[in-house]
């Protein structure tokens, strides 16, 4: 009976998947709506500590997030089987595209080595999910043009993100008023207002920068909506995301011109300065006036961590990074350990060995593609940053820099893959300077 049930569910899933794929083929922008649904699932599942398995086949377990990049993979395969090549590659972009292809090739070699060495195990499956939920969205964005400037798409993103921000403030209000302590927030080092993970907070920071840039370009001021989104990023207390956001905000402000007739330079208007002063004063006032809520202590601890990097979380992660890199020897040092090799590391200073995530995107790349792979990956980011600057594409410049910083503290996810794929396509499609 159970076999019949799983067979029926599998048939339903295949039929539904084919229809969704056809829907996205007709209009690639539709992938945004699916991504929004998955984003909500990840926010809620992180907050309330649960997970959903849609498919279970031995060591293979697939959840809602996995279905998104599997859909993307099938769309890429179908398109390339039909058209055989990427038609929009232009002169001047060969170096960027070649670097990207080399990184993908090294990951593929690691996959094949893993299957030949270990077979299809739970560790191999975990590695595939960990890396390809990042790599496949890049492939998708290179093969399908998703127009974020489309009026319908931009309107949806704006409304959706404001729904997310409203949800944040409602949850914070409930937590502060009722004293509710969710399992997820109590496990976040005592920072009980950190209701999002770093990946979903990173998306929130990107939206905050978009709102900031739009306000300055169109209204020559910062709206209350933008202030609320920026404040949400601060309250979330993801320190690596703070640094990413700060870099993006500085670049947005440096690009700000109150008058299009003036030369491009850093300008702070009187009204803009007053708004910033009021916002900072309001935030400080709320924090000081409500010490009983714990907000003041949380933020103080988060900011103080930057003043002493030799101790605490950063020092511990540095020890983990060193331990993982020490496992790369011989051929593995050049092209990395195969998929399925695991992540057991010995921490000599701590006196124990255990399975630990590297908590660093660059170290993770090195572990599966070696020093050659991480060198190519850094080169790819550097090329995107340089091209974004030369082509005067502010979004590419900001996002590439933010990814580089984000990977110091965290690893891969599909949000970053979509963004990196967007940057690659933006650079490859157009070599002419564009003023933003």
Outline the structure in words.
With 436 residues, the protein is mainly alpha-helical. Helices cover 70% and strands 3% of the residues. The protein is built from 17 helices and four strands. The chain has helices spanning 2-26, 31-48, 64-83, 94-118, 122-143, 151-178, 183-186, 198-219, 224-236, 239-254, 270-289, 295-304, 312-325, 331-335, 361-390, 394-409, 414-429; strands at residues 55-57, 60-62, 344-347, 352-355. A two-stranded antiparallel ribbon has the order 1-2. A two-stranded antiparallel sheet has the order 3-4. β1 (55-57) and β2 form a beta hairpin. The longest helix has 30 residues, at 361-390. The termini are far apart.
Order of helices and strands: HHEEHHHHHHHHHHHHEEHHH
Mean pLDDT: 80
Sheet of most strands? 2 strands, antiparallel
Low-confidence stretches: 261-267, 431-436
How many E-type strands? 4
Residues in β-strands, percent: under 5%
Cα distance spanning the termini = 60 Å
Helix content: 55-70%
Q: How would you summarize this macromolecular structure in one to three sentences?
A:
By secondary structure, this protein is mainly alpha-helical.
Question: Can you lay out the helices and strands and say which pair or pack?
Answer:
Layout lengths: L1 H25 L4 H18 L6 E3 L2 E3 L1 H20 L10 H25 L3 H22 L7 H28 L4 H4 L11 H22 L4 H13 L2 H16 L15 H20 L5 H10 L7 H14 L5 H5 L8 E4 L4 E4 L5 H30 L3 H16 L4 H16 L7
Antiparallel strand pairs: 1-2, 3-4
What key attributes describe this structure?
436 residues; two-stranded antiparallel ribbon; two-stranded antiparallel sheet; 4 strands; 70% helix; disordered C terminus
């Amino acid at each position: 009976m159970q076999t019949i049930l799983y067979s029926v569910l599998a048939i339903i899933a295949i039929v539904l998947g084919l229809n969704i794929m056809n829907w996205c083929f007709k209009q690639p922008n539709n992938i945004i709506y699916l991504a929004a649904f998955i984003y909500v699932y990840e926010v809620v599942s992180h907050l309330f500590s649960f997970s959903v398995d849609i498919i279970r086949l031995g060591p293979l377990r697939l959840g809602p997030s996995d279905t998104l990049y599997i859909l993307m993979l099938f769309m890429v395969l179908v398109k390339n089987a039909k058209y055989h090549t990427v038609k929009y590659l232009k002169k001047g972009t060969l170096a960027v595209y070649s670097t990207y292809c080399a990184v993908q090739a090294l990951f593929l070699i690691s996959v094949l080595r893993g299957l030949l060495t270990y077979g299809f195990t739970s560790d191999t499956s975990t590695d595939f999910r960990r890396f390809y939920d990042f790599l496949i969205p890049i492939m998708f964005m290179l093969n399908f043009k998703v127009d974020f400037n489309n009026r319908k798409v931009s309107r949806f993103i704006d409304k959706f993100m404001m729904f997310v921000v409203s949800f944040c403030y409602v949850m914070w209000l409930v937590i502060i008023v009722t004293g509710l302590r969710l399992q997820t927030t109590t496990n976040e080092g005592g920072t009980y207002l950190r209701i999002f993970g770093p990946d979903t907070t990173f998306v929130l920071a990107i939206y905050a920068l978009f709102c900031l840039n739009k306000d300055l370009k169109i209204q020559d001021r910062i709206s209350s909506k933008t202030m609320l989104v920026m404040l949400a990023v601060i309250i979330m207390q993801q320190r690596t995301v703070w640094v990413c956001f700060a870099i993006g905000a500085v670049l947005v402000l440096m690009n700000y011109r109150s008058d299009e007739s003036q030369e491009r330079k850093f300008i702070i208007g009187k009204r803009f300065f007053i708004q910033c002063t009021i916002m900072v004063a309001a935030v400080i006032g709320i924090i000081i006036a409500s010490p009983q809520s714990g907000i003041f202590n949380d933020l103080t601890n988060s900011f103080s961590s930057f003043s002493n990097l030799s101790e605490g979380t950063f020092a511990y992660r540095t020890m983990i990074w060193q331990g993982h890199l020490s496992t790369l020897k011989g051929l593995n040092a050049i092209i990395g350990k195969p998929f399925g090799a695991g992540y057991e590391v010995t921490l000599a200073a701590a006196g124990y060995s255990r399975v630990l995530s590297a908590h660093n995107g660059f170290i993770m790349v090195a572990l599966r593609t070696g020093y050659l792979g991480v060198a190519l990956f850094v080169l790819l980011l550097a090329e995107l940053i340089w091209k974004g600057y030369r082509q005067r594409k502010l979004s590419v410049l900001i996002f590439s820099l933010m990814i580089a910083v984000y990977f110091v503290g965290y690893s891969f996810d599909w949000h970053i893959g979509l963004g990196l794929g967007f940057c690659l396509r933006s650079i490859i499609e157009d070599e002419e300077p564009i003023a933003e």
